[in-house]
Design brief:
Radius of gyration: 19 Å
Largest sheet: 6 strands, parallel
Length: 236
């Protein structure tokens, strides 16, 4: 897998993930100086190449003069999210989020909001690729992301573990009237279809954000960001 972009590669180097090598474009040495120093400190091989060579390697066209080559993304074990801990637990579940930009943004929101992890299904969903890591600004390298056979299986297990599950939809109860201070799961649906019918039934409560304009919906990652930070506010 290729991780592209300065912020994403910097965040990668802060983790214990194995990096096979890093390529830096000639002429970008100064801008990538911190990356070079961290790579040398960790004993990671660094190669310098023409910018055109990085253009050919790039999968996103936005490498910013640096590409890291790593093994495939290592997903967390789902059972890790079922373990008790000091303080309330907080998990994000993605139900059919197929757009890599939305998934990357969702993982960035989840990590910034202090979520314990995120859950994605193996099928009918975007997976964690190099592009998703870049879009998440490297947040995917710090967040536990578990991949499960099905979202409803995961929701059942989370509820058995003591989580209260909130589904985000346009026709739910006002989220600002809900108690988000305990062990909670926020379930975000796909870009066009929202939550599936069965997933909706599995949720303990359907909640929504008040919409005051003429447009009747928000982007999935934006909606999640507002909801997640309402949970952060209540927990402070």
């Amino acid at each position: 897998m290729k991780i592209e972009g300065r912020n994403a590669v910097l965040e990668l180097l802060k983790t214990e993930k194995t990096v096979d090598k890093i390529e830096i474009a000639r002429g970008a040495e100064k801008a990538c100086g911190r990356i070079f120093a961290m790579a040398r400190e960790k004993g990671i091989r660094v190669q310098f190449a023409d910018n055109k060579a990085l253009d050919r390697e790039s999968e996103t066209g936005r490498h910013q003069g640096v590409i890291a080559f790593v093994s495939d993304y290592e997903y967390a074990e789902f059972d890790e999210l079922l373990q008790k801990k000091d303080g309330p637990r907080f998990v994000i579940v993605c139900d059919g989020v197929e757009d890599v930009h939305n998934l990357g943004s969702i993982l960035r929101v989840a990590e910034c909001a202090g979520a314990d992890g995120a859950v994605i299904p193996k099928n009918k969903s975007a997976q964690v690729t190099g592009a998703v890591v870049r879009i998440s600004e490297g947040a995917a390298n710090h967040l536990k992301v578990a991949r499960v056979p099905g979202v409803n299986f995961a929701i059942d297990k989370l509820k058995e573990s003591g989580y209260w599950v909130y589904g985000l939809e346009a026709d739910g109860e006002d989220i600002y009237q809900c108690d988000l201070t305990g062990d909670i799961v926020l379930v975000i649906g796909g870009e066009d279809s929202g939550l599936s019918a069965l997933t909706r039934k599995k949720c303990d409560k359907i909640v929504s954000l008040p919409l005051k304009g003429q447009v009747n919906s928000l982007n999935a990652s934006v909606a999640l960001g507002i909801a997640a930070y309402e949970a952060v506010r209540q927990r402070r």
